[in-house]
Amino acid sequence: MLTPTNRLYIILAIIMLVLLIPAIAMQFSEEVKWSLKDFLVAGILLLIAGLSCEWILQRIKKKRDRILLCAGVFFLFLLVWAELAVGIFGTPFAGS
Question: What's this model's pTM, rounded to 2 decimal places?
Answer without folding.
Answer: 0.89
